[in-house]
Design brief:
Elements (H helix, E strand, L loop, with lengths): L2 H7 L11 E4 L3 E7 L5 E7 L18 E4 L1 E2 L4 E7 L6 E7 L5 E4 L14 E2 L27 E4 L1 H5 L29 H8 L3 E4 L3 E3 L26 E7 L10 H17 L3 E6 L44 H17 L4 E4 L7 H14 L5 E4 L24 E3 L1 H8 L17 H8 L13 E3 L9 H8 L3 H4 L4 E2 L2 E2 L5 H7 L15 H14 L4 E5 L19 H4 L4 H5 L1 H16 L8 H7 E7 L2 E6 L11 E6 L5 E4 L7 E5 L10 E3 L3 E4 L3 E6 L10 E8 L8 E6 L6 E4 L2 E3 L2 E8 L5 E8 L4 E2 L5 E4 L7 E8 L6 E3 L8
Parallel strand pairs: 10-11, 10-21, 11-14, 14-15, 15-16, 16-17, 17-18, 18-21, 30-38
Antiparallel strand pairs: 1-2, 2-6, 3-4, 3-7, 5-6, 7-8, 7-9, 12-13, 19-20, 22-23, 23-24, 24-29, 25-28, 26-27, 26-29, 30-34, 31-32, 31-35, 33-34, 35-36, 35-37, 38-39
Length: 799
C-alpha cells in the first residue's frame, strides 16, 4: 500500500470557501488551489496556451513566469497578482516532500486553451451573448411534465442532409428557418415542433480524446485522439468541449457558443440537461486531480490499488469531503453560469448516496427549484463503495433513476436477439404493468423517481434492436463493426451505402410495416406510462446506426441523424408528435404521486400479449372522465372489452393516427385493436374538480442553515413521505405540498436527513379544511431545543 494512499485515508485539511480557482478583475487576479499535502505550490503564468501557437514577436519565450504561493487555512495555497492578466494562461506547480514536482491545470478551471493544455485567464462577462441577462429557464411545474430527448451535439448537425452551416458545433442549435425540399422543419425548429420539453446533451464539458485542433482526414496529433467520441472521458469538468466550438484556440469562443446553444433552446421553450461524469476521469496521473493532491480524489480497494467500478481504470471517491465539495461546486457553476436546467449522472451507482441527496437538496434550494436530476442506478464493475446509489436508494430523495426493468420488459436484452413484450415474448405483461404504474410497487415511492425508456445512446438503438430480434440484420445488409471500423477492414462508407436498414418498408404505407409498428408501440408505451419519459434522438425518424451497438468512436456516417428520413417517414414523425401532444395535454398521463396512481389507475387485462388499463374519474384533474389505454403486442388483431359508459368511446390513438383529438368513435362495449399497435380512448369530456390545493410551508431557522432539513408528511392523498424545501423566500426555506381538495388536515414532522434529528418531539398537523383557496401558507419557526417547533398562525391565504 502506497504512502500517498495511507495519507489520503487520514485526516487532512479541508476548505469550505466558495472561491477556489481564479477570481478575475481588471485590476488583479486571485488564484486559490487546494493542495494540502504539497510542500510548496507555485503559480506559473504563460503567454500562450501551450499548443505551439506563439505570439508573433521575435523575443518571445514560453518558459513561464513562476510566482510563489502562500499557504492559507484549509490546505489552500493562494496568491494575488496585480494588473490585468486577461489573455494569459496559468498552471500550478506543486512540489512534494519526496522531491517530486507536478505541473497541472487548475481543477477549478473555467476556461482553457485548445485540448485543455493550459488554464486560460478570461473575463467571463465577455462570453455572455446578447440578451443573456434576460435568458430564463422554461418553467417545469412538476418533474412528471418532462419529456426528455437524448442528443449528441455532433450527431444533431453533422449529416449533409441537415442543411445546417455549423455542422457538429454548438452554433448549429442557433440556426433557424431550415426546411427540407418537402417543406418539413429541420434542426432546432424540428425539436420545437416535436414537442419535447428537455434536450439531454451527451457530455459537453471538456473531454480528452478528440483533437480540438485536428481537421477531418488528418492524422490525430496524439495516440489518444479519435475523430469522434461521446464524451465520457472527462478532462476539465467546468469548461465546454472545444471540438464543438468554431474556434477551439480561442478560450472565449466555446463558452460563448455553448451559452448561445442554451439560449436558443430556452427561446423555444426547451430546457437543457447536461450528462455529467463525476464517477471517473479519463486520465489518472495526468488527470485533473492526481498531480496536485495525490490519491485523495480516487477510490482504492483494500490492497491500496485503484478501484475500477467504472470499468475504465479508476473511480472518484465521492464520499470524501473535498471530492463531494468539488462535485457540488461544479454543478452549481453550470447551473448559475450557463443556466443549465438539469443533470443526468453517468454510473450514478458509483456516487455515494449522501452526495446525491445533498446535490439534489442544495441545488434546488439555492439555485433552481425546477432542476431535473436523474442518473444510472448501476456501476460498470465491482466497487468497495458501501453506500452506492442503486435502484431504490432514490426513494423520497427528489431525484430519479433509469428504469432498466421496464426497458428489458419492453424490448428484451440490449444488444442481442433476446425479446420483450413488443418484440414477441409472452410473459412480460406484469412487468409492463409495473412500468406503466411508475414502478410504485417495485422500487419507487413516486412516479417521478423513474425515467422510462427503451433505448439510449449506448447499445443497439430501437430500430436496430428490432431488426435483430426479427432476424433481419443479414437481409438489411448491416455490416459487422468493431471499434468504429469494419471487422476485417475495408471501406466503411461503401459498406453503408450497400446496406438498407429499412428493408421491407413501403414508402407509400410506412405505418403498416412490422418493424415500424413494433417501434411505435415501444415508445407509445413509454409516452403513456406514469413517470418521466425519455426518447433517444432520431427515434421519431426511424434512426439506424447500422447495427453498431457501441458507436462511441464510430464516425459521423454511423452516428449522424439523417434528416432526409423526416420526409421519408413523416407519418412516423407525426405519430410521435401526436403521442407527445397527448401526454402534455392530459394530466392523467402525468400523475404526481403514489396515492394518486393507486386511486386512479386500474388494469383491465394483463395477459397473452395484451395490457389494458383505465385512468378513471378525471385522473389528475384531467378533463376526460375515463381513459382506456390498450397495448396489443400480438401480430393479429384482438378484441378488448371496455368499461360501461352512458355514451360512446372516442378514439384518439390507434395504429393509423396519434393525437389529443378524437378522430373516430365506437358505441360498442368492446373495440378491436390492430396487431402490433396501441389504442387510447376516452368516454366523456367535462370540467373536473381542482386537482389539488397547495400547502406552502415556510420554515424559519434563526441559524439560517437549512441543509438536510426536510418535511415528512402524511394524509395528502397524492404523495406522502419526504418533502424537500425547494426555494428561499425572505430568508425562509419553502416547501410546497400537494393535497387533495377535500383534505381536512395533513400531518408533518420536521427532520434532518433520514431522522438524524427532529425539530420538535410530537407529530404536528396543518388544518386544511377552512379554506376554499388553492394555496394555504403557514410558517414554522424553530425555537428552543426543548420546545423546538411552533406552528404560527397561517399567513394571509392567497389563491
Amino acid at each position: 500500500m502506497s504512502s500517498n494512499y495511507i495519507q489520503a485515508e487520514q485526516e487532512i485539511d479541508t476548505y469550505q470557501g466558495n472561491d477556489l480557482g481564479l477570481t478575475y478583475t481588471a485590476e488583479y487576479c486571485v488564484f486559490k488551489v487546494w493542495a494540502p499535502t504539497a510542500f510548496t505550490v507555485s503559480l506559473v503564468l504563460y503567454a500562450t496556451g501551450g499548443n505551439g501557437l506563439t505570439p508573433q514577436t521575435a523575443d518571445y519565450k514560453d518558459s513561464g513566469k513562476i510566482l510563489s504561493m502562500e499557504r492559507a487555512e484549509g490546505g489552500v495555497w493562494t496568491i494575488q497578482v496585480s494588473g490585468n492578466l486577461k489573455g494569459k494562461y496559468y498552471m500550478y506547480r506543486a512540489v512534494f516532500a519526496d522531491g517530486s514536482i507536478n505541473e497541472a491545470a487548475d481543477p477549478y478551471a473555467t476556461a482553457v486553451s485548445a485540448n485543455g493544455t493550459r488554464t486560460a485567464i478570461v473575463d467571463l462577462s465577455e462570453t455572455d451573448p446578447d440578451g443573456w441577462e434576460s435568458d430564463a429557464s422554461p418553467v417545469l411545474p412538476h418533474p412528471a411534465d418532462a419529456v426528455i430527448y437524448e442528443l449528441h451535439v455532433r450527431d444533431f448537425s453533422s449529416d449533409p442532409s441537415s442543411g445546417l452551416t455549423y455542422k457538429g458545433k454548438f452554433k448549429a442549435f442557433t440556426e433557424t428557418g431550415l426546411r427540407d425540399e418537402a417543406g418539413h422543419l429541420l434542426g432546432i425548429d424540428h425539436l420545437a415542433e416535436l414537442g419535447i420539453t428537455h434536450v439531454h446533451l451527451l457530455p459537453v464539458f471538456d473531454y480528452q480524446t478528440v483533437d480540438e485542433l485536428g481537421k477531418p482526414g488528418e492524422e490525430p496529433a496524439s495516440s489518444i485522439f479519435t475523430d469522434y467520441n461521446w464524451g465520457y472521458d472527462p478532462q476539465h469538468y467546468n469548461v465546454p468541449e472545444g471540438s464543438y466550438s468554431t474556434d477551439p484556440a480561442n478560450p472565449l469562443a466555446r463558452i460563448r457558443e455553448f451559452k448561445e446553444l442554451v439560449q436558443a433552446l430556452h427561446s423555444r421553450g426547451i430546457s437543457v440537461i447536461m450528462d455529467v461524469v463525476y464517477n471517473h476521469t479519463y486520465g489518472f496521473q495526468k488527470g485533473p486531480f492526481q498531480p496536485l493532491v495525490p490519491d485523495y480524489y480516487y477510490r482504492h480497494d483494500q490492497s491500496g490499488r485503484l478501484s475500477n467500478g467504472s470499468g475504465v481504470g479508476n473511480e472518484l471517491a465521492t464520499e470524501r469531503p473535498m471530492v463531494r465539495k468539488y462535485i457540488k461546486d461544479s454543478l452549481s457553476y453550470w447551473a448559475k453560469e450557463y443556466h443549465i436546467d438539469g443533470f443526468r449522472f453517468d454510473l450514478m451507482g458509483l456516487m455515494d448516496s449522501v452526495t446525491m441527496r445533498e446535490i439534489t437538496e442544495e441545488l434546488r434550494l439555492e439555485i433552481n427549484p425546477g432542476l431535473l436530476i436523474y442518473g444510472e442506478p448501476w456501476t460498470g464493475g465491482d466497487s468497495p463503495l458501501a453506500s452506492k446509489t442503486l435502484k431504490g436508494v432514490q426513494r423520497g430523495k427528489g431525484y430519479a433513476v433509469f428504469n432498466d426493468n421496464f426497458r428489458a420488459a419492453i424490448k428484451g436484452d440490449s444488444d442481442g436477439w433476446g425479446k420483450g413484450f413488443v418484440t414477441g415474448e409472452y410473459g412480460k405483461e406484469g412487468a409492463i404493468a409495473s412500468g406503466v404504474s411508475g414502478a410504485i410497487h417495485e422500487f419507487t415511492d413516486a412516479p417521478t423517481e423513474t425515467v422510462n425508456y427503451v433505448t439510449a445512446h449506448d447499445n443497439l438503438n430501437l430500430w436496430d434492436k428490432i431488426l435483430a430480434t426479427r432476424g433481419l440484420r443479414g437481409e438489411a445488409g448491416l455490416p459487422e463493426l468493431e471499434g468504429g471500423k469494419l471487422r476485417g477492414g475495408g471501406d466503411l462508407k461503401a459498406a453503408l451505402e450497400q446496406a438498407n436498414p429499412y428493408v421491407g418498408v413501403d414508402p407509400e404505407n410506412v405505418l403498416d410495416n412490422e418493424t415500424v409498428r413494433r417501434s411505435l408501440l415501444a415508445n407509445g408505451i413509454i409516452l403513456t406510462s406514469q413517470g418521466i419519459p425519455f426518447l433517444h434522438a432520431g427515434d421519431e425518424l426511424l434512426r439506424s446506426k447500422y447495427g453498431d451497438h457501441n458507436s462511441y468512436r464510430s464516425p459521423d456516417c454511423i452516428n449522424a441523424i439523417r434528416w432526409e428520413n423526416k420526409s421519408k417517414f413523416i407519418a412516423v414523425f407525426q405519430y410521435y408528435k401526436g403521442l407527445i401532444e397527448l401526454r402534455r395535454t392530459h394530466p392523467a398521463f402525468r400523475l404526481h404521486g403514489r396515492q394518486e396512481i393507486e386511486r386512479s389507475l386500474e388494469f383491465l387485462r394483463c395477459d397473452s400479449g395484451i395490457v389494458a388499463y383505465r385512468l378513471k374519474d378525471h385522473a389528475g384533474g384531467d378533463p376526460w372522465n375515463n381513459i382506456v389505454v390498450i397495448y396489443n403486442a400480438n401480430m393479429e388483431p384482438v378484441t378488448q372489452c371496455l368499461p360501461e359508459t352512458s355514451g360512446c368511446w372516442n378514439i384518439v390513438i390507434d395504429h393509423t393516427h396519434a393525437g389529443p383529438e378524437a378522430f373516430r368513435q365506437t358505441e360498442n362495449g368492446s373495440v378491436e385493436v390492430a396487431g402490433l399497435s396501441m389504442m387510447v380512448l376516452y368516454d366523456k369530456y367535462g370540467e373536473p374538480e381542482p386537482r389539488s390545493k397547495i400547502v406552502e410551508v415556510h420554515y424559519d431557522r434563526p441559524d439560517g442553515d437549512y441543509r438536510g432539513w426536510n418535511l415528512w408528511v402524511w394524509g395528502t392523498g397524492i404523495q406522502d413521505g419526504q418533502r424537500d424545501f425547494q426555494h428561499m423566500e425572505e430568508g425562509h426555506a419553502v416547501a410546497r405540498i400537494e393535497v387533495l381538495p377535500g383534505t381536512s388536515a395533513i400531518g408533518y414532522i420536521l427532520r434532518l436527513n433520514d431522522w438524524e434529528e427532529k425539530d420538535g418531539t410530537a407529530d404536528r398537523f396543518i388544518d386544511c379544511s377552512g379554506s376554499g383557496e388553492q394555496v394555504i401558507k403557514v410558517t414554522v419557526r424553530e425555537r428552543s431545543p426543548e420546545h423546538r417547533t411552533e406552528l404560527a398562525d397561517p399567513l394571509p391565504q392567497t389563491s
